[in-house]
Design brief:
This protein is mainly α and 362 residues long. Helices cover 75% and strands 0% of the residues. It has helices at 12-21, 30-60, 63-93, 100-119, 121-133, 135-141, 144-162, 180-222, 226-265, 273-288, 293-300, 302-312, 334-350, 355-361. α9 packs antiparallel against α10. The radius of gyration is 26 Å and the shape is globular.
């Protein structure tokens, strides 16, 4: 990123030749300044998001907030490993003059955190799809305990997927053309972080939008009551949060995916200053994705804005009374519990009327 001495090259002559042939960094110190600002803003914002989502998760006992908590935690890990350790410490402070084993180990954790941050969005998409297209099944399978197990599995898979990238080559400093291992790692990387998750987002989000449109058309034809017409709007808001998160991810990560493949097949980042510039800018855009979710949540979700306001005002009480959810213990009987509770409320409303008072009212 910046034209500093390469401490990872094995020999001094190779270092000198590599430095002489290396493409110029047009941005100079701008990436370091950008990442410093992004870290100072992104980490506090994500911590605030964690606190607000934790309150909503405790208050509502919804699996959606558990998934969003995992996504926010993964974003914080990405900011710490990739931005703070990778860009600021290794590059700006130590000038990459650190042991090769440490560089490769940090690279492995960077990719693991990156994969976790991206793949934490996949369970959110699946959860929203099941909630809208199969609501009865969603009541049975979507609850916080199951969400925690799913997130644990995603984190374990993300950590395992980062191990092969221990052998990832530094595109800025390696002068040789990509070999077979580099090709395999690059294609594995772009498939894991972009092509595979974006395919899932595209298919499930399309099905969600089609289902919402179909419901709205049916309700317009039947001309139902106002209470029932409010349901699609509510579903649309939670769906809008999902669509915003996945769309921003697809837009911000697309340039980096294209530049990496261009580096593999057309021109090297190390030799062409234009590819070097494109790679720096695409990395900056991709890392912006770790800090924008807070603003998306605030724009879309009214409960999230209220929870953030409570955090700023140091309010500990919930905005709404917490209602016990019976499906936490027996998720298969969630609909039966809600029906029985509704029946009990109706009985409580009817029983106080004695025959004498009923006769007077008549």
């Amino acid at each position: 990123m910046i034209d500093w001495h390469n401490g990872t090259a094995p020999g001094q002559q190779e270092n000198e030749r590599s430095t002489a042939e290396r493409s110029e960094c047009v941005l100079a110190y701008i990436p370091v300044i950008y990442y410093s600002i992004l870290l100072c803003v992104g980490v506090p914002v994500n911590i605030l998001t964690l606190v607000a989502l934790s309150r909503l998760a405790v208050r509502t006992q919804k699996a959606l907030y558990i998934y969003l908590l995992a996504l926010t935690g993964s974003d914080i890990l990405s900011q710490l490993f990739i931005i703070f350790v990778g860009f600021i410490l290794e590059t700006a402070v130590f000038h990459r003059d650190v042991p090769v084993l440490l560089l490769r180990s940090v690279s492995m954790f960077e990719f693991a955190a990156n994969h976790a941050s991206i793949w934490a969005t996949v369970p959110i998409t699946v959860d929203r799809y099941v909630a809208l297209c199969h609501p009865l099944l969603h009541r049975q399978i979507s609850y916080p305990a199951r969400a925690r197990r799913i997130i644990a599995a995603v984190l374990i898979l993300a950590l395992a997927s980062g191990v092969p990238f221990f052998w990832w080559s530094d595109m800025w400093r390696v002068s040789r053309p990509p070999n077979n291992m580099d090709t395999t790692l690059i294609w594995t990387h772009v498939t894991i972080i972009y092509f595979f998750p974006c395919s899932i987002f595209l298919v499930l989000n399309s099905l969600i939008i089609l289902r919402l449109r179909k419901r709205q058309q049916q309700q317009m034809c039947h001309d139902e009551s106002g209470q029932q017409l409010a349901v699609p709007g509510k579903l649309g808001k939670s769906t809008a949060m999902l669509l915003a998160v996945t769309s921003v991810f697809a837009v911000l990560w697309a340039p980096r995916t294209g530049v990496v493949l261009y580096h593999l097949y057309v021109s090297s980042v190390h030799k062409d200053w234009r590819v070097h510039l494109a790679y720096d800018l695409s990395n900056m855009l991709a890392m912006l994705n770790t800090a924008v979710n807070f603003f998306l949540y605030c724009f879309v979700s009214k409960p999230f804005r209220a929870a953030v306001r409570d955090v700023f005002l140091f309010r500990g009480a919930p905005l709404h009374p917490r209602q016990p959810l019976h499906h936490q213990r027996t998720p298969a009987n969630a609909s039966t519990s809600s029906i029985s509770s509704g029946t009990k409320r109706c009985q409580r409303e009817v029983t106080p009327l004695s025959p004498k008072s009923a006769h007077i009212n008549l």
